[in-house]
Design goal:
Blueprint lengths: L6 H17 L4 H18 L5 H12 L2 H15 L7
Helix pairs in contact: 2-4
């Protein structure tokens, strides 16, 4: 099963990657830019696997670039305290 199949697993996965990036010295702007790039890739290349991803995909598709950057930033905030490496 892919991490994209389950919303909680997806948030945990993103939280783990965020923790790794921060431990390697990535600053907030770099993290947010990477989150935007990932969000853009997922929106264009990956079929949503669950209800939450479908909502994000729909929002992303109607958002301006600035709004997409805000969505990506909010996803970073959402997963900051998630992850399995506590």
């Amino acid at each position: 099963m892919s991490v994209l199949d389950n919303w909680q697993q997806w948030k945990d996965f993103l939280g783990d990657r965020l923790d790794q990036g921060q431990q390697q010295g990535m600053n907030k702007d770099t993290v947010n830019n990477l989150a935007y790039q990932i969000g853009d890739y997922l929106a264009k290349q990956v079929e949503p696997k669950n209800e939450q991803e479908k909502i994000l995909s729909d929002l992303w598709s109607v958002a301006s670039k600035e709004e997409q950057e805000a969505i990506a930033s909010m996803m970073v905030k959402l997963v900051e305290d998630n992850g399995t490496q506590k």
